[in-house]
Design brief:
Helix content is about 50%, strand content about 15%. It has about 100 residues and is of the alpha+beta class. The chain has a two-stranded antiparallel sheet with strand order 1-2.
Amino acid sequence: MCRVFAGQDPEGYKSVNRSVRIAGHSTSIQLEAAFWDLIDEIAVSQDLTTPKFLNQLYDEAIEINGEVPNFASMLRTTCVLYISGHRPSPEELEAPGTAAA
C-alpha cells in the first residue's frame, strides 16, 4: 500500500457537518474536512462566500438538470473537477446568473 495515501493526516478525512441554507431551507451537509477546505477555496476563487457559492451551485444545477439527487456527492465531484483543473472561463464568471464550479 502506498504510504502517501495510508499515512495521510486523519484530520483530512474527519467528517465535518456544516449547517447551510440551500434554496431557502436550512440543512446540514456532512463532508470530510479536506472537501470543505476545497469548497472554501473554490468559493474564494469565484469571489463568493462559501454559503453563496453553495446556493449558486445548487440553483444552477436545478436549472440545468431539474434536480440534485445527492448534493453532498455533487460537492465531492465538484472538488474532483476543480483539482483536475476544470475552471470557469472569465466570461462565465462575469455573466449574470452564472458561475461554474
